Amino acid sequence: MPRFKTRREHSADGQWRDWPEFTNTDEPEGTSQSPEIQNISQENAGFHEHDLDESETELPTARRQKSKKLASNSKKPLMRPVTTKLPLTDKCLHFDDISEVPGDLQKYYHQRYSIFRYYDYDVRLTHDAWFGVTPEPVAIQVAQDISSSLFSTPLKDTIVDLFGGAGGNSIAFALSEKWSRVIAIEKDTDTLACAMHNAEVYGVQDYITFIHGDCLDFLDRLKTATETLDDSLRLDPQSTMLFASPPWGGVNYRDQDVFDLSTMEPYNLEVLHQACKPMEHALYLPRTSDLRQIAKLVPDGTKIDVRQYCMEGASKALVAFLPASFD
Fold first, then answer.
1. Per the record, where are the segments of Basic and acidic residues compositional bias (predicted)?
2. CATH no. for 64-291+317-322
3. Which are the contacts of 246, defined by CB distance < 8 A and separation ≥ 6?
4. pLDDT one-digit tens code per residue, 149-172
């Protein structure tokens, strides 16, 4: 139904201001679990940390470091897409009855149809993936929002799911039909096997390119060593959007009233942003994330879009939409 929401902005006097806005949150027909979305637009004021310019005396050192990096890159094996479906292992779990479910997963098993609507069609998840997969209604809404919330033109035609996991977000991106290419990166073999299997369950296996590897390694190759990427993976940054749903550090993040994004492992907020920032990117983060840390990622006066995603009145996560930056 139509309702009011608030837009939070950081004003020039250093205070946060909440401004009412009118929005329509009617649920689409047939999507009773469609999450409510709360938009938070905030303006960063005075948080930018300026990098020091390299001096002329540092240039020879920089050249030597670049030469060493090029030599190192030449030794990297070629990164290719996975072209054959990986076999399921005993770590690719599917439970048919609560009696089969470990105690720490029973809460998530009760929510299985919110996690994957077609769970009964043999959806598979590793133990860790049960904790980290994006609920399907949220993943579908995020996929719609990303395609309509880009900062520049022309619109992007490729989206890269940097932490592909068991496929929740990648499947939603493929189902949205907003992208010419969907690429999912996952470094854990068992989890990747689950993702490829789940994509088949949803009938989108031919619309997702899977990569077995580390996402930061992929981004580094894309920026500095494209010759170490298969031709099909040499993406145009101008037409590519990045999505990152990184590990938050287990369920303990819920114990923090305000989540410190510098504590995320293995990659914290700053590391992720630095790796992604030559391209537009959306970061899927805990609902209690410290907005001040997010604000510091962009130059003074830059507005960023932060959205809370809710199901049944409870916030599940937030997504920060960040523009490309070359500073």
1. 9-20
2. 3.40.50.150
3. 162, 163, 264, 267, 272, 283, 284
4. 666 556 789 999 999 999 999 999
